[in-house]
Amino acid sequence: MCSCNLFRSIFTLIIFLSSLLEITRGDTVTQPSISTLVKESQNITIHCKYDIAAGYTPNLFWYIQDPDQDPQLILSEHSREDIPPRFQNRFSASHNKTEKIFHLNITAAVLSDSATYFCALSPIL
Q1: Which residue range is the domain that position 44 belongs to?
Q2: Which of 32, 46, 58, 86 could form a disulfide with 104 if both were Cys (CB 3.0 to 4.6 A apart)?
Q3: E strands along 27-84, which residues?
Q4: Of 88, 85, 79, whose CA–CA distance to 107 is shortest?
Q5: First CA to last CA distance, the chain
Q6: What is the CATH classification number for the domain harbouring 74?
Q7: In whole angstroms, what separates CA 88 from the centre of its chain?
Q8: How much is the pLDDT for 60?
Q9: Which of 110, 104, 107 is nearest to 32 (CA)?
Q10: What is the pTM assigned to this prediction?
């Protein structure tokens, strides 16, 4: 008996996230280096915390990297119109400037969401 249905309904959403990316002036993005098991159609939040030098406003981004592919932009804090069709309606970000967090929210996860996710920032001068 094949457990194919179980295999389809449960998959690993790899969230191998760079644990600490440093940018000039000591700006940082911190993500947990974990893999998460998610059931198909389940919602998930991928966490990102940042720190940036005083006086600067961050431009925040989320990228996805599928196996054997280059990273692809999912969304940017300041430009929501350019979200690729694959991510529209299911991918969003929540930004709390006080806590300096920029979490990625995925609604109704599907098997093709299984990938590596990166949070990044660029200071706006």
Answers
A1: 4-124
A2: 46
A3: 27-30, 33-39, 44-46, 49-51, 57-65, 72-76
A4: 88
A5: 60
A6: 2.60.40.10
A7: 14
A8: 93
A9: 104
A10: 0.75
- Residue 23 burial class via C-beta count within 10 angstroms: exposed 0-12, middle 13-18, buried 19 and up: middle
Q: Look at the block and give the residue holding tokens 């940017």.
A: 76
Residue 101 dihedral angles phi and psi, to the nearest 5° = -125, 150
Q: For residue 88, what are the CA distances in angstroms to 13, 81, 93, 95?
A: 18, 10, 12, 18
Which of 42-46, 78-82, 86-90 has maximum average pLDDT? 42-46
How many folded domains does the chain comprise? 1
Whose CA is closest to 116, among 6, 18, 22? 18
Inter-CA distances, 11 with 47, 101, 104, Å: 19, 26, 18
The residues, any chain, with a CB within 8 Å of residue 23's CB and separated by 6 or more, are 29, 121, 122, 123
